[in-house]
Amino acid sequence: MSAGVDPEARLNLARASVLLVEASQHSADVLAQIVKGFGVNDIHRALTTEEAEKVLHGRSVDLLLVDPSVSDGDGYRMLRDLRHSGGPNAYVPVVLISGHVRASDVARARDTGANFFVTKPITANTLLQRIMFVARDKRPFVQVGDYIGPDRRFKFEGPPPGSDGRRSGDLQAPLGDPAEPNMSQNEIDTIIKPQRVMI
Questions:
Q1: What residues does 98 pair with on adjacent strands?
Q2: Choice between 43 and 178, residue whose per-residue pLDDT is larger
Q3: From CA 113, how far away is CA 143, in angstroms rounded?
Q4: For residues 31 and 97, is the Cβ–Cβ distance under 8 A?
């Protein structure tokens, strides 16, 4: 993924409905201004998971931006419950945004079904990149054991050579030459690890 937003890329968010779940009114106001700058007109704010759940039960949304520390760390529980709800918002894209991130937080976000994790402080450009990535992400939602969320595999090219594979859908035929160059380590790190962007 490039460092900036592709100027040729187009993403019309005018009809998108976005729910912001932040721990403080100030943070919600700042995030709302950034999202409004992207052209979003239908913005809902919640300062607790209870408020967020009321919004989610009453309407469909297109994107959730959630600080997982809201309601004393209850944001993770809210996301997990949402994914297991089977309701109209169960598969909505979710970007977690937090200022205090450890490796265990990223793993927890992944395991509860988040689409992406962004660290604070964020810039409008960084958030727009992540929203564009999530909007164009073609990974299917899967349910494996207790996990419900986007497939955590970014590419699926079959089982390792010489093995039969573990899944019923594994490709059995030999793979041809790659269609595109391998990703650089920097590109892989950008996808997997949260990036702190300084203003």
A1: 119
A2: 43
A3: 10
A4: yes
CA distances to 15, 33, 93, 143, 171 from 89, rounded to whole Å, are 16, 24, 9, 16, 32
pLDDT tens per residue, range 38-48: 999 999 999 99
Helix (H) or strand (E) holding 42: strand 42-46
- pLDDT tens digits, one per residue of 5-40: 454 567 889 999 999 999 999 999 999 999 999 999
Q: Is the dihedral of CA 138, 143, 145, 146 positive or negative?
A: positive
Identity of the residue numbered 9: A
Inter-residue contact 115 to 95 (CB < 8 Å): yes
Query: Which SS3 state, helix, strand or coil, does residue 3 take?
Result: coil
Q: In 3D, which of 124, 118, 129 has the Cα closest to residue 5?
A: 129
CA distances from 87 to 81, 91, 114, 145 (A): 10, 8, 16, 19
In Å, how far are 155, 157, 171, 196 from 164, measured between CA atoms? Answer: 18, 13, 9, 40
* DSSP output for 88-146: TTTT--EEEEESS--HHHHHHHHHTT-SEEEESS--HHHHHHHHHHHHH--PPEEEETT
Please, what are the domains in the chain? 17-151+186-192 (3.40.50.2300)
